[in-house]
Amino acid sequence: MVSKLSHLQVELLGALLESGLTKETLIKALSEVEPYVLQSESQRAINALQTEKGEPCPDIPNLPNGMGEARLSEDETSDDGEEFTPPIMKELENLSPEEAAHQKAVVERLLQEDPWRVAKMVKSYLQQHNIPQREVVDTTGLNQSHLSQHLNKGTPMKTQKRAALYTWYVRKQREVAQQFTHAGQGILTEEPMGDDLPTKKGRRNRFKWGPASQQILFQAYERQKNPSKEEREALVEECNRAECIQRGVSPSQAQGLGSNLVTEVRVYNWFANRRKEEAFRHKLAMDTYSGPQPTSAPPLTPHNSSSLQPPSALSPSKVHGVRYNQQPASEAESSSSNHHGNSSMVTTQTILHQVSPPGLEPSQNLLSTDTKLVSAPGGTLPPVSTLTALHSLDQNPHALSQQTQNLIMASLPGVMAIGAGETSSLAPAFTNTGASTLVIGLASTQPQSVPVINSMGSSLTTLQPVQFSQQLHPSYQQPLMQQVQSHINQSPFMATMAQIQNPHALYGPKSEVAQYTHTGLLPQTMVITDTANLSALTNLTPTKQAFTSDSETHTESGMHTPVSQAPTIHLQNQDTSIQHLQPGPRLTSSPAVSSSSLVLYQSSDSTNSHSQLLPSTHNVIETFISTQMASSTQ
Amino acid sequence: AGKAHRLSTEEREQLLPNLRAVGWNEVEGRDAVFKEFHFKDFNRAFGFMTRVALQAEKLDHHPEWFNVYNKVHITLSTHECGGLSERDINLASFIEQVAASLS
């Protein structure tokens, strides 16, 4: 298309384009340049060029002052006349009669065009510059609904009204162009209407995040939920650059963004809002788990009570029976809350796995902000352990990711964002390292599910991570936890045994025998064992391998390794240790096996006492787990 | 446009070494910096000048320059303060950028 250009012409063109000119601007400028190069040949050339580009009206008025806006109707017009401000014409702005006439001519031409095409142009211009519709409505007097429908759906609009719209469009383009042109120089010439029209809100429009900036922010959010001031400032620069590029403007003209300029404060607020959002989603997830009952201190309780009917006089032997009976209810519950019980657990773990220590901080924030969360005695413990567990899940990121995503979506609103990569706005942020987000959510939920544990003390905190996994079956967890707590004093072993053997007693208050079974079996729940097993708990924390080395089949159970390795960092109370059953991974592959392996696993590194405990519980757990798995597999 | 005040000694110590490192030299007898640019041919040289010119307009700060075929001599100084100012430093940096991209 380009005629043969000399090298110099190419160089000059390159220089022009490099200086921030856009192609459209250049073309428009060609017609405006008349006054400077007003020669018949150049005029013809310009016309030829324009028609070549499909210009419908080659009869560009020969403007005496060259400040007119040549409107190229088919192209989306970008800011015009940016660097191209004829110095001699600086004073002649919008209000000059020629300019007004020129604008009218442009509007006329637009009116003759296909309204839908012009509407598309106007709409994309609004999107490109993030201009709120309200601004258009305020200045044109059009009805906002009508305007929206016209721009989005092509609803017909009368000529008179379209004229008003196009007039606004023409003026706005000039205004924005000047905004950008003078961004670095201050306002040298009179701005037609100031930065933007004086709105009812005052001079400036409400700031709005552009898609480009949001993308950058979400990516940064994935990396770290709580950026420092320096990082925020870096993001400010990046976002403004992206916004300028979106508008076809050189990034050095960022000031021209006007009301949509990204500032450090705005970035700070964005991050704060995302964190709150996540906490809230997490809270909602917890609520979902708990069922429709109002969330009370033991979130699981309501859930349990609703789903299960704990027989008050169940003997241990009947526990199983109860359990199974309850299975359907719990199954229903779990299935209703989780699309894939296994996967959710898996995902949770996966999520945890991906969380990195830095993410603990935000999780802590979540914990603090989440009202339902019980304040953990060792504030850092639960999230850390949770995260650790998650880290261990890394073994099977792919296998779990899908499930995880699904489950997470189902179980935790926050998780949804992470796992599913669904439409949720958070999806982009979470698709990659959703784990971190999830973890946080999980971490926060943990306290909820096991409030008792927290109150118990450090030992309880270890349970928190378990909660996380238990979220999938919160009802189950709660009773266990509570019972555990009550028995912890006695001895870990005894507590566990007590739970197992006398679930009823333990669950008295809770009256959820079934829950007990859940908890006992749960891969999700933590079986309280000896202190020796504290190491197992510790793996919840930084070791990251919590879920990795499942003793046999499942990679996720990193409990193995970390258990042996992790010192009792997080388990402050040496009296109890909690075995973290790894529900997720196991469940997916072979529930029954997994549960058993879990149990076995935990005993692997623990002391004899632990092993003793395990076998007894193992069967129970196994059975229970199998059942659970079946139900959760829905 | 940037600040037009003459650079203080500390500022010079801070900023000029960078320029000196890339070839800008102080002019004898006046408070200015000078550099010679060579390009492959006139086109490149003039393309460079065009870019610099556009930026100069934007910054409202213009260089003193001379061009013969593929050589460009540029002297930077600020008239308002009678010496070097921040504007010169800015423009010099930009010129370096452009020259780098063109060579």
TrEMBL record, chain A:
GO terms for molecular function: DNA-binding transcription factor activity, RNA polymerase II-specific; RNA polymerase II cis-regulatory region sequence-specific DNA binding. Residues 305-317, 329-343 have a biased composition (Low complexity). This is HNF1A factor. Residues 287-343 are annotated as: Disordered. The gene is Hnf1a. It is found in: Nucleus. Residues 202-282 bind DNA. InterPro entries: HD (IPR001356), HNF-1 (IPR039066), HNF-1_N (IPR006899), HNF-1_POU (IPR044869), HNF1_dimer_N_dom_sf (IPR023219), HNF1a_C (IPR006898), HNF1b_C (IPR006897), HNF_P1 (IPR044866). One of its GO terms (cellular component) is nucleus. Residues 90-185 form the POU-specific atypical domain. GO terms for biological process: insulin secretion; liver development; pancreas development; positive regulation of DNA-templated transcription. SUPFAM superfamilies: Dimerization cofactor of HNF-1 alpha, Homeodomain-like, lambda repressor-like DNA-binding domains. PROSITE patterns: HNF_P1, HOMEOBOX_2, POU_4. Transmembrane segments: none annotated. Pfam families: HNF-1_N, HNF-1A_C, HNF-1B_C. Signal peptide: none annotated. Residues 1-32 form the HNF-p1 domain. It comes from Brachypteracias leptosomus (short-legged ground-roller). Belongs to the HNF1 homeobox family. Residues 200-281 form the Homeobox domain. SMART domains: HOX. Keywords: Activator, DNA-binding, Homeobox, Nucleus, Transcription, Transcription regulation.
TrEMBL record, chain B:
InterPro entries: PCD_sf, Pterin_deHydtase. GO terms for molecular function: 4-alpha-hydroxytetrahydrobiopterin dehydratase activity. Pfam families: Pterin_4a (PF01329). Its main location: cytoplasm. It is found in: Cytoplasm; Nucleus. The keyword Transferase does not apply. Involved in tetrahydrobiopterin biosynthesis. Seems to both prevent the formation of 7-pterins and accelerate the formation of quinonoid-BH2. Coactivator for HNF1A-dependent transcription. Regulates the dimerization of homeodomain protein HNF1A and enhances its transcriptional activity. Also acts as a coactivator for HNF1B-dependent transcription. Belongs to the pterin-4-alpha-carbinolamine dehydratase family. This is Pterin-4-alpha-carbinolamine dehydratase. It comes from Brachypteracias leptosomus (short-legged ground-roller). The gene is Pcbd1.
